[in-house]
From TrEMBL:
<keyword id="KW-0238">DNA-binding</keyword>
<dbReference type="GO" id="GO:0005829">
    <property type="term" value="C:cytosol"/>
</dbReference>
<dbReference type="InterPro" id="IPR010982">
    <property type="entry name" value="Lambda_DNA-bd_dom_sf"/>
</dbReference>
<dbReference type="GO" id="GO:0003700">
    <property type="term" value="F:DNA-binding transcription factor activity"/>
</dbReference>
<dbReference type="InterPro" id="IPR001387">
    <property type="entry name" value="Cro/C1-type_HTH"/>
</dbReference>
<dbReference type="InterPro" id="IPR050807">
    <property type="entry name" value="TransReg_Diox_bact_type"/>
</dbReference>
<protein>
    <submittedName>
        <fullName>Transcriptional regulator</fullName>
    </submittedName>
</protein>
<dbReference type="Pfam" id="PF01381">
    <property type="entry name" value="HTH_3"/>
</dbReference>
<feature type="domain" description="HTH cro/C1-type">
    <location>
        <begin position="20"/>
        <end position="74"/>
    </location>
</feature>
<dbReference type="GO" id="GO:0003677">
    <property type="term" value="F:DNA binding"/>
</dbReference>
Length: 80
């Protein structure tokens, strides 16, 4: 992660990652399964869930599609 991210930026990434983990857990999926369904690497999914990745829009859309959620659903609980 870039050192240019503020503490608030990092908190938002952490919350986003928690939301992804929550939705994944509701489906009963492992990180590996979500990675397969979304076309992303398992290590990348793990980094997202730990709040260590600043995602590109296309990857947010891939995760939403795989989780059968809207992109807005992925951002629940991310607001300060």
């Amino acid at each position: 992660m870039s050192d240019r991210l503020t503490a608030d930026d990092k908190e938002q990434l952490r919350r986003f990652g928690q939301r992804i983990a929550e939705l994944r857990g509701q489906k009963g999926w492992s990180q590996e399964r979500l990675a397969l369904e979304s076309g992303l690497a398992r290590s990348y999914v793990g980094g997202i869930e730990r709040g260590q990745r600043n995602l590109a829009l296309i990857n947010i859309l891939r995760l939403a599609r795989a989780l059968a959620a809207s992109p807005a659903d992925l951002f629940a609980h991310c607001e300060a």
